[in-house]
Amino acid sequence: MTRATLRVDRVDSAMNEWMELAELRLVDRDLVNINEGYEVRYWMGRFRCTAAQLLAAIATVGTKPDWVQAHLRRSKQSLTRARRSSRISRGPDAISAPAIPRRPDANNFDS
To answer: Where are the domains of the chain?
Structure first.
């Protein structure tokens, strides 16, 4: 065999290995699969959520991506509303420095 033939064989085998890996790593976009790590990472990036949020959403609404996305949006909106309402209800006076206890003066003998 010549060097050119060896190179072609190597390229063919490398290409076949890559294609096999590519086929194995395809994400089924019809269902959210949490059994594969790469799919969990894909869906976490797609929905911009944590793994715990993703698992909770799937447990609540099922594995359809549209349902999961809608659930995550609702939960993020309700969390944002809760934060806003707590800021509004406290008002500007709620943020004040704590009272510093006074230390008795060592030179004051009146007390």
So the answer is: 18-84
